[in-house]
Description:
Layout: E1 10-12, H1 18-23, E2 29-34, H2 39-54, E3 59-64, H3 69-74, E4 82-87, E5 90-96, H4 101-117
Parallel strand pairs: 1-3, 2-3
Antiparallel strand pairs: 2-4, 4-5
Amino acid sequence: MNVAGSPSPIAELRVDDFSVQSADAEAPLVVHFWAPWCAPCAMLKPVFEQAAAMRGDLRFASCDIDEQPELARELAIRNLPTLAIYHRGLERARISGTMRLGSLLDWFDRHRVSAQAG
């Protein structure tokens, strides 16, 4: 649930739907790659959820790499947590580590223009 109590705007991403989700031309897809054993991932999760509730111009997904190891290998996810922006089937930006909400929103804004231009 998001802050307002409505259903979460964060989809669970699986290897079999990644191509379709990342190819959407309307809005970039921001993916949070994480694992249950990763403490920094747990710290980033509520920040990512807050950002998703605030940004209707982007689509959001979460991927547990323990449940989707094929996707993590295919996308070369080597550090956790990792956030990546995909648009029209291409990766437009990637960052690893935790961050505060303001920094995360700024990162979205910096890379939103490049995602739309591509």
